[in-house]
DNA sequence: TTCCTATGACGAACGCTGTTCGTTCTACGA
DNA sequence: TCGTAGAACGAACAGCGTTCGTCATAGGAA
């Protein structure tokens, strides 16, 4: 492809036909170049305010005053972008130096932190299902968790599999909590209305068909997110101990 | 609106202008009427073969030889359709008559069943997050679960909150398992390739930065879905017992 | 300095999505 | 026989992820 020769006296400038696309059409001035960091920033901002389902390549591009296609020079695809966002959020997590005297409390605090961080990013936790940590910050988080569990002196199998279990629990709890908070934010009063309806619905259940459920209505509707999450953590950690004890009693460890 | 009068000798048939839409254009013959059941059938078929993300109103309609708009006469929206699908699947679950001697085994079998049923429907479990059971079959499933737990003689709070915890665990485990099975089906050999890469990746982790993780590689990669799910159930149920014991020791129950 | 090339920016397009609208057709009750 | 309720349904709207071809620029090579 050759460039247009400069006009001279012998060869005056050739007018461009109207139907030919102009070579230097009026274009907005070139903006500051995109960066992966800026893209992740914008994506996370959308997730934080409108939830994961509102995250689209076009919305991210819009926030950066560009077009969706431009993002693909920095990010392989949407899946890749989500992984980057998850890694960014994993970077918010931090675990203390393991203390064998207080590993139980450290673990509980750590998991509360994980849940809160995810929930602060609305329903982002949804994207964490089915993912094995491979990004830098998520690997660090895993390392921090395992280190604390290891300080508890449990068998390796119990530690490794429990880490899975606890992480899955924190992710699930964060997802459900984030989902509810998102709905409340997008539709103020939703929580009260929804749980009011649920309460009324359960109170109206026929006790002939659902005798046990009806007999337990109080217990079923008791407790807020924190109470219930704390209960789950207690149960899992007590269970880990009991499981390890059983292994030792059976001479497996 | 008046009907076109029949042509007579005095009043010959008036030709319809070409631009006027014909009154009786050639249309396919009216088909057997749609039903909610048929719609749920079609939707579940799509979920079973292609996963939840492939479920669209148009695909369902296509399967029923009609248009997407026709579905809205029987189903409020996609969310409603998914709830109907979930209820249908909940109907596959069944729990035995509670036996106080074997409530632990009954619970474990029941939860394995729940996980397997969800996983058989690919990643459908994803849609179960954040949902409180209100549909007939899901209420029955909850009743069956609670009845078995009640036979264990634990305090109501432990039963109710544990039911939540266990159901969440079964849902999460089913989701992750279903996700992997879906990927394997859509891309045969995926599982082996993926876990091979993961194994190689973990083996390549620098032990200076991730000392604990590296020291536990064996434990971290051990066990299949069933082993790990069984471990989680064991831990949770041992934890429930220990939690109840602790409550009793503190005079809380 | 001048040219070439690699790279990022970007508009347009493709084939999807959930949902709504207005129209048409059919079956049933009066 | 008529009127009406309700289902069926095509078209449309705004949005989606991604790809393509084109363009402008920056940096290295000559």
Structural class from helices and strands of chain A? Answer: mainly alpha
Gyration radius of chain A, in Å: 27 Å
CATH architecture of the largest domain in chain A: Orthogonal Bundle
CATH uppermost class of the largest domain in chain A? Mainly Alpha
CATH topology of the largest domain in chain A: Tetracycline Repressor, domain 2
Largest interface: A-B, 57 and 57 residues
Let me know the CATH homologous superfamily of the largest domain in chain A. Tetracycline Repressor, domain 2
Tell me the β content of chain A: under 5%
Largest sheet entry of chain A: none
Helix-strand topology string of chain A = HHHHHHHHHHH
* Alpha carbon gap, first and last residue of chain A: 74 Å
β-strand number of chain A: 0
Shape annotation of chain A? flat
Mean pLDDT score of chain A: 89
Helicity range of the residues of chain A? Answer: 55-70%
The DSSP helix count of chain A reads 11
What ranges of chain A have pLDDT less than 50 throughout 5 or more consecutive residues? 1-30
Total domains of chain A: 2
In quaternary terms, these chains amount to homodimer
Protein name (chains A, B): TetR family transcriptional regulator ActII
Region (Disordered) (chains A, B): 1-31
Keywords (chains A, B): DNA-binding, Repressor, Transcription, Transcription regulation
DNA-binding region (chains A, B): 56-75
């Amino acid at each position: 492809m050759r460039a247009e020769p400069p006009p001279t006296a012998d060869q005056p400038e050739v007018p461009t036909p109207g139907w030919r696309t102009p070579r230097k059409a009026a274009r907005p001035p070139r903006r500051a170049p995109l960066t992966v960091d800026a893209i992740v920033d914008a994506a996370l901002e959308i997730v934080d305010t409108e939830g994961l389902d509102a995250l689209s390549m076009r919305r991210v591009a819009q926030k950066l005053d560009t077009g969706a296609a431009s993002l693909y020079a920095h990010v392989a695809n949407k899946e890749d972008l989500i992984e980057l966002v998850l890694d960014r959020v994993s970077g918010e997590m931090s675990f203390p130096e393991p203390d064998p005297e207080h590993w139980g409390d450290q673990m509980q605090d750590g998991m509360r932190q994980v849940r809160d961080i995810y929930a602060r990013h609305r329903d982002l936790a949804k994207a964490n299902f089915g993912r094995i940590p491979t990004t830098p910050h998520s690997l660090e988080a895993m390392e921090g968790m395992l280190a604390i569990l290891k300080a508890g002196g449990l068998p390796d199998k119990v530690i490794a599999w429990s880490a899975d279990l606890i992480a899955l629990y924190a992710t699930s709890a964060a997802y459900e909590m984030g989902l509810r908070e998102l709905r409340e934010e997008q539709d103020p009063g939703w929580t009260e209305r929804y749980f009011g309806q649920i309460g009324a619905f359960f109170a109206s259940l026929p006790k002939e068909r659902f005798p046990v459920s009806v007999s337990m209505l109080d217990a079923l509707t008791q407790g807020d997110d924190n109470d219930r999450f704390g209960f789950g953590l207690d149960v899992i950690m007590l269970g880990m101990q009991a499981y390890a004890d059983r292994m030792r009693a059976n001479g497996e460890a």
